[in-house]
Write a structure and sequence with these properties.
The complex is a heterodimer of chains A (about 425) and B (about 70).
Chain A: H1 2-44, H2 48-51, H3 63-70, E1 75-79, E2 82-85, E3 87-92, E4 96-101, E5 110-111, E6 115-118, E7 121-125, E8 134-135, E9 140-141, E10 147-148, E11 150-156, E12 162-170, E13 173-178, E14 189-191, H4 196-221, H5 229-250, H6 254-276, H7 290-307, H8 310-317, H9 324-370, H10 377-421, H11 426-429
Antiparallel strand pairs in A: 1-2, 3-4, 3-14, 5-8, 6-7, 7-13, 9-10, 11-12, 12-13
Helix pairs in contact in A: 1-9, 1-10, 3-9, 4-6, 5-6, 5-10, 6-10, 7-9, 7-10, 9-10
Chain B: H1 4-34, H2 39-66
Classes of the chains: A alpha+beta (about 425), B mainly alpha (about 70).
């Protein structure tokens, strides 16, 4: 009976997931309308009147909606015009830091201090009046009555790479939009906002603090007694990681690195699981953001190379027990391996989580592909049934992937550290 | 027809990963059948090897994705 109840709950969860994602997607259809319609008008070199023309016979292209949903955002979008705002913190040269809420954009219909919110993402309008709460002018309204304010134009450069040029219109003038500074693409402003991903990371950290400090208090108060409740639930995970991963992989010096491996494992695990919840406290695609995985892999890289002993470096620069030409041949290979190891670590985590989210969102897009953007209700129903079955299955698979990827990341980090601190006895061994 | 070559590349990478992970899984099954008592060690090593193969394939897919 209990097992049946649990299975029912899992099914309800999966169904809720599909529905909520579908609601998301519904709005994204509108998004897509705006961009493709605009590209068309650009192609035809048509005037303003063409902007408002409805485009009903177009095919649904799911990729912009999917890309928007796996990306980071400055608000938690729930459905339609309902979203949970997040604090925005921006830095501009000469202006310093400015703090404001993403609610000041009124769901993207207003500009604030020269910034606009484009589908949940903050962008700066260059040369735009820096006043508070400037009402934007809609450039296009789709048949559902959704107004769109940002004009997206896809421009191909000489190597055939497609770049998006976004602009807004205000009082007869066009202002280009600018993204925040990236490492390799500096712009006029830098974004320090508490975005969806940052919020999810804070939430994961707070959850882990609560769980593990609660466990610590339990053990202190109930010495010698069997664990109960949450402590009982978490203990096997912790013991498994300690006895099956940290101890055998690192060797006698395991205690020094246990904190790092455990933090990596539980942080990645909690972030992944939060990312699978399709509504407010979750839905942040943290490990599907390459910057996050880069930093995690960088931590492993630094720890591995700073704890590397004489034997570790000897194996890289002067491999023992092989002829001299081979020793020289090994130097570049081992040096490359030094960087390839953390690189594969970060790519594996990023790609697995991104792939999972993309597959789920693509399956939800089936509703709109079969439904021909609301033209074919029967097709949409078939799509919904198919998408429900597959999304339910994918969500269960994603639960496995969430745990497996956290485990693999921790295990490989432990193995790399283990290889760096291992004491070799080559002369005796060979 | 943009991105077609990248898609072909991603497909080739998946073929390679499929063969690799299939080999690992198959051999692990054989090993478990031969020595059921070593199932824990075999599983861990299988996951490590599968993760390494997958890492190479995913690197290619990510390159194809952003190409």
């Amino acid at each position: 009976m209990k097992g049946l109840a649990r299975q029912f709950l899992i099914l309800v969860f999966c169904f809720a997931t599909t529905l909520l994602l579908a609601q998301h997607e519904n709005d994204a259809v509108g998004h897509d309308h705006s961009s493709s319609a605009e590209v068309e008008t650009v192609d035809h070199q048509a005037g303003e009147s063409e902007h408002a023309a409805p485009h009903t016979a177009e095919k649904y292209n799911p990729s912009p909606a999917v890309m928007n949903h796996i990306g980071d955002a400055h608000e938690f979008h729930i459905w339609g015009q309902i979203s949970i705002p997040l604090p925005c913190i921006t830095y501009e040269e000469g202006q310093g830091l400015s703090f404001f809420s993403s609610a000041s954009f009124h769901h993207g219909t207003m500009a604030y201090n020269g910034y606009v919110l484009d589908h949940g993402v903050l962008r700066k309008a260059i040369g735009f009046p820096t006043r508070e709460g400037v009402e934007l002018e809609a450039i296009h309204t789709d048949q559902d009555g959704h107004a769109h304010y940002v004009h997206t134009e896809e421009v191909k450069d000489e190597v055939g790479k497609i770049a998006e040029h976004k602009t807004i219109h205000y009082q007869g003038q066009t202002y280009p939009l600018e993204s925040s500074s990236k490492i390799f693409a500096a712009t006029s402003w830098t974004d320090f906002s508490i975005t969806k991903n940052v919020f999810t990371m804070f939430l994961a950290t707070i959850l882990l603090f609560l769980i593990f400090f609660g466990m610590k208090r339990f053990y202190a108060n109930n010495e010698g007694k069997a664990p109960r409740g949450l402590t009982n639930f978490m203990e096997p995970f912790f013991e498994f990681m300690r006895d099956e991963v940290v101890k055998p992989s690192i060797g006698p010096k395991w205690e020094k690195y246990m904190g790092l491996i455990m933090s990596l494992f539980f942080f990645i695990l909690v972030c992944n699981l939060l990312g699978l919840i399709p509504f407010f406290p979750g839905s942040g695609n943290v490990m599907g953001n390459i910057s996050v995985t880069i930093v995690l892999a960088l931590i492993t890289f630094v720890v591995v190379n700073f704890s590397g002993n004489k034997h570790y470096w000897q194996h890289i620069f002067w491999m023992p027990n092989v002829p001299v030409p081979i020793k020289i041949l090994f130097i570049p290979i081992e040096l490359a391996g030094l960087f390839i190891k953390p690189f594969t670590l970060l790519i594996r985590l990023f790609a697995n989580i991104t792939a999972g989210h993309t597959i789920i969102l693509s399956l939800v897009s089936l509703i709109f592909i079969f439904g021909e953007v609301g033209q074919n209700v029967g097709g949409a129903s078939v799509g919904a049934v198919v998408a429900f079955i597959f999304v339910a299955f994918m969500n269960l698979l994603e639960l496995l992937v969430a745990v497996l990827q956290a485990f693999i990341f921790a295990l490989l980090s432990a193995l790399y550290i283990g290889a760096a601190v291992e004491e070799h006895h080559h002369e005796e061994a060979h | 027809m943009t991105g077609t070559l990248a898609a072909v590349g991603a497909g080739l990478a998946v073929i390679g990963a499929g063969i690799g992970i299939g080999q690992i899984g198959g051999k692990a099954m054989e090993a478990i059948a031969r020595q059921p008592e070593a199932v824990g060690d075999i599983r861990t090593n299988m996951l490590i090897a599968a993760a390494l193969v997958e890492g190479a394939a995913l690197a290619t897919i990510v390159l194809a994705f952003f190409a």
